[in-house]
Amino acid sequence: MTAAGYDDERHREAVLLVVSELVTNALRHARGVTGLRLSHHPRGLTVSVHDAGDRPPRPRPLEPDRPGGFGLHLVRGLTEGVEVEWRAGGKNVWATVPQPGG
């Protein structure tokens, strides 16, 4: 991540949190992870998670008295948004953490 410009702890933690949340969602709600890819481009670092699920990710309503359900809200707050591409046997869910200083 340092070579891609994510050289301070705050930006590295954002990328790691996005990876963790997207992978966790695939494991819990989409029959597992079938692929993971990180790609860097001028807009930022994109985290792509492939899974075998047939439903799009959807945020749960925020309820302070219920544990969990914050993952997609966190990802949306740290990225340019969550995108979904349907493909044979599942989908690709990705989000881009903006380039620091960009």
From TrEMBL:
Taxonomic superkingdom: Bacteria
UniProt keyword list:
ATP-binding, Kinase, Nucleotide-binding, Serine/threonine-protein kinase, Transferase
Name of a matching Pfam family: HATPase_c_2
Q: Could you give a GO molecular-function term held by this entry?
A: ATP binding
Query: Where is region (Disordered) located?
Result: 46-69
In what ranges is there compositional bias, type Basic and acidic residues? 51-66
Pinpoint the Histidine kinase/HSP90-like ATPase domain residues.
Answer: 9-96
Q: Which Gene3D superfamilies match?
A: Histidine kinase-like ATPase, C-terminal domain
Keyword Nucleotide-binding present in the record's keywords: the answer is yes
InterPro entries from the UniProt entry: Anti-sigma-factor_SerPK, HATPase_C_sf, HATPase_dom
PANTHER family per UniProt? ANTI-SIGMA-F FACTOR RSBW, ANTI-SIGMA-F FACTOR RSBW-RELATED
Query: What is the designated name of this protein?
Result: ATP-binding protein
Give the species. Answer: Streptomyces flavofungini
Starting at the broadest rank, the lineage of the source organism is: Bacteria, Bacillati, Actinomycetota, Actinomycetes, Kitasatosporales
